[in-house]
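Collaboration report, partner site 2.

Our partner group contributed sequences for two proteins of shared interest, and the home lab folded both. The records are reproduced in the order in which they were received, starting with the first partner submission.
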Amino acid sequence: MTSKASLRRIMFISVPAILLMLVLGFVHSSTKKIISSNILSSKKEKLLKLVPKSYHDGDVFIESLSVPETHLKSLGLNNGSDYHVVKNYGIPVALIIPAVGEGYSGDIKILVSVNMEGNIIDVRVTSHQETPGLGDKIEITESHWISQFSGRSLSNTTDVEWGLAPDGGAFDSFTGATITLRAVIRQVFATLNFSDAILNKGYDSLKKVEGIN
């Protein structure tokens, strides 16, 4: 009798506990999927800010691929960094490439979008620690300096021109931020060289880009 009573007590405690664990597991799984979906949606929205709607009309997919080890150093990136291929109805229309430069006060992180002809669509600074009122003018919200890159390519801008005007380059400068500006120009140029390596391989080779030197 005592044994049956003990068994009932164990069942009384265990069954609700098991059910609670199952419910918590289901809620965690569902929440994890929602959070993951929201993160992906936010990332897609952020990336598409660099690609005007003239390049896509709704059915957009962004494929992320690993930056080859041979290009990590020139782009200032770490292992595991991705670049992105924007597709419209399955057809590639743009590349979005990250890069990091060493500014006056720390790392400057940028994203550069390039069309399939190798022309820069847009450049945005995503993170920096530069001096307010000086170096922060690399942000589009502070000045239009960053807009100078739009339309530039390796074919219409020579290697020598990838510098500041006082250095004989093609890009405007402003007082008190030459280190910052040079860092941005250098890394934008690096993204164009990377995109050129990809585009010269052709899209069929994008997934085998690890072999690009």
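Second partner submission, folded after the first:
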Amino acid sequence: MTTTVSSRRQHTRDRLIDAATGLFAEKSIEGASVEEISERAGFTRGAFYSNFDSKEELCLEIVRQRGEQLLETTRRALAVIPDSPVNAQWLEEIIAKVITVLDVGFTFDDNWVLVRQELRLYAFRNPTFRPALIEVEQDANNLASEALAAALARHGASLRIPLDQLMVTLDAFCERTRVDSILNGDSDAGHSWRDGLERIVRALVVLPADEDRASAEPV
């Protein structure tokens, strides 16, 4: 019986979170009221407060859930990187696999792109909310950074810029591309996003063969 109640409660919370995410994208976090969130989810105001103490607590739950999804998506993307050394052709295949995993993940859902921006603004304006958002983003970034650093070392590859700058570059490119596509109503933005991301990675990853070839060229 407890499991059934718990399941129903989680279902209610999930519906409230889905409703809030949509409204936050449409109206901003501060512009969406508890009443509107409850109504869109098909519940009363009382149902909201039986699950969340405040709108800020709901925002924290959104961050927690998305953080778990982001970590899982990152793990799946990194799992396709082989342990054995790679050559240029294999690198192309690895990049394609990683991007495919990311592309089908939640990360580039239009609503989430907008809500992520809203959560950052909300964190800026509400210092008590800031640590939770920072922790989630840092956890995912650290996981990806550590795994990529290990993979680069394993294959004897290097980067043309520091790894932390690469992570910022990729994140900024993806976010800017998605925001632009939303503003422009571009339904085919996924193609340009993938092409651009592939070019950035190829340009910044240096394989051992590339280094040997560069050192052999006359100055």
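Feedback sent to the partner group on the second submission included the following. The two ends are 76 Å apart (CA to CA). Residues 2-27 form the longest helix (26 residues).
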